[in-house]
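quick one: S-adenosyl-L-homocysteine bound model?
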Amino acid sequence: MVFKRLFKRGSEDLGGEEMNFKKERKELVQNLIRIGVLKSPEVIRAMMAVPRELFVPPSYKKLAYADTPLPTASGQTISAPHMVAWMCELLELKPGMKMLEIGAGSGYHAAVCAEIVAPTGSQVKGHVYAIERLWELVEFAKKNLERAGYADRVTVIHGDGTLGYPEAAPYDRILVTAAAPRVPPPLVEQLKVGGKIVIPIGEAYTAQELFVVEKISEHEVRRRPCGGCIFVPLIGRYGWRESSEPSI
Ligand code: SAH
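yep, here:
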């Protein structure tokens, strides 16, 4: 079985704490498979490969594999593992893709995506551009990605992600990890035809739904609602104001 092979790789030469994390990671992934969130071998392999303990603040390290969001800084969060897995499944990422993430936060979700588009040890080099509006978190994500070995595959940028990142467009996939009042038009413009955006849309802290937005032609998108979710607000030109009013 492909899953068995994925779980078996390299546990021999790890120290005690790392061994425990590896065991907890395996249990978390097995649970996400059991409840039907994790399905594809690519996402399963990526969730098994990325050490979440390197992306949570040190005081929360022991909770790294609890399936729950954890605080990062300035009232922001690192998404729960099931949400990371679910969004990655909806994105249908493939090796070699170029993607944009809005809301880098801890850098964890970007690392999981990078492990799929540019797998460790593979010649195939996709890339993840991850935008974050808070400087403190830009530094945090960069440091975490460096320590975990993803700095060459993820570029962290400081800015308002509702404007996208035209410098590296067009993208195969766009992932938004904060809740928007609507789909920011620059993101649709910067998406390739045939590309997909996964984005939570709804009120600032409640009544949000996760959407897959597919660009089916230069001038046409198709939106598919996928289920309820809760994210911190997307704050920016095409998102919310700090006061939770839509910016425009
Ligand atoms: N993906 C992150 C979790 C994201 S939490 C992880 O894996 O840890 C949402 C993040 O979006 C927060 O860090 C918040 O600061 C950021 N954010 C909110 N509005 C933004 C915007 N307009 N542009 C970029 N980042 C934004």
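The radius of gyration is 17 Å.
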